[in-house]
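Inverse folding, one chain.
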């Protein structure tokens, strides 16, 4: 990408991590970028008795679990219950767990965490697991163009990117239909960009994150449109589901690249800059890659 000749120039408006897959997110002002995504993003996951991942698709109450990270622990908080503390160094028995079609090794976080989840979620066999640091979960090379990339418990790719203007566009359409505005937290992105047109990320090639003096800090390759399930219909504040968001998206967000599925945001892999720090306010540039 040539200096000063980029098609789009924006900024990182928000950074979000989701320490426990399908639980509430945590807004951060900076985050270490790793090959597998933002540090602490989807490090933990809830599984059932067979080791299959559990999400808001099956258990909307997961939206009410609010994680917090301290220097040495993951804290989980919900209304009406004592918080759960899980050490960041916690190990445990190894389990084979399943995320979509992938089976990987994870570490069981123990009976106290399991009982806490079972009490709040009302399911008898759910457990909290952590991604085994010795394991690797490969992304689909069909979408990465043959580039090797890996992630942890995210649905399939390390980073999810979208734009604040895309959210504005959706809320404009919802208002026209008499629905209240919704928040970006329903779409669970990691990186939200400002200064771009709605859904510009659909048509961009590599993204470069820049330092204050314009040097390239890190690179993301946008590889696959993010197909949407019913989770954006779930209100994160109440865990109640209403179809208005999905109905509005259905009218204008079907993507032929994923067989006409409704999409919002783009999945990305990390091409360079692992170990660097992304910060809210950093400049980002990219070129269109239509076709």
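Residues assigned per position:
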């Amino acid at each position: 990408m040539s200096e000063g000749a980029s098609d789009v120039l924006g900024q990182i408006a928000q950074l979000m991590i989701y320490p426990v897959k399908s639980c509430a997110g945590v807004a951060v002002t900076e985050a270490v970028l790793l090959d597998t995504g933002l540090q602490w993003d989807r490090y933990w996951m809830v599984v059932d008795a067979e080791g299959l991942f559990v999400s808001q698709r099956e258990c909307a109450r997961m939206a009410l679990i609010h994680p917090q990270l301290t220097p040495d622990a993951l804290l989980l908080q919900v209304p009406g219950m004592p918080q759960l503390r899980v050490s960041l160094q916690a190990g445990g028995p190894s389990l084979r767990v399943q995320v979509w079609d992938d089976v990987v090794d994870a570490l069981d976080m123990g009976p106290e965490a399991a009982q806490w989840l079972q009490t709040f979620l009302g399911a008898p066999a759910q457990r909290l697991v952590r991604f085994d640091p010795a394991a690797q979960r490969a992304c689909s090379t069909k979408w990465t163009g043959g580039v090797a990339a890996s992630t942890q418990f995210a649905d399939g790719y390390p980073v999810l990117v979208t734009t604040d203007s895309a959210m504005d566009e959706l809320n404009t359409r919802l208002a026209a239909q008499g629905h209240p505005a919704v928040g970006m937290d329903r779409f669970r992105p990691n990186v939200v960009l400002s200064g771009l047109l709605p859904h510009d990320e659909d048509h961009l090639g590599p993204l470069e994150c820049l330092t204050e003096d314009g040097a390239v800090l890190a690179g993301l390759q946008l590889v696959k449109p993010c197909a949407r399930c019913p989770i954006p219909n779930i209100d994160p504040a109440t865990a109640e589901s209403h179809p208005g968001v999905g109905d509005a998206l259905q009218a204008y967000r079907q993507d032929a690249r994923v067989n006409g599925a409704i999409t919002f945001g783009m999945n990305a892999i990390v091409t360079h800059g692992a170990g660097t720090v992304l910060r809210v306010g950093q400049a980002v540039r990219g070129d269109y890659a239509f076709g």
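The longest helix spans residues 164-176. The helical segments are 111-121, 141-144, 164-176, 244-250.
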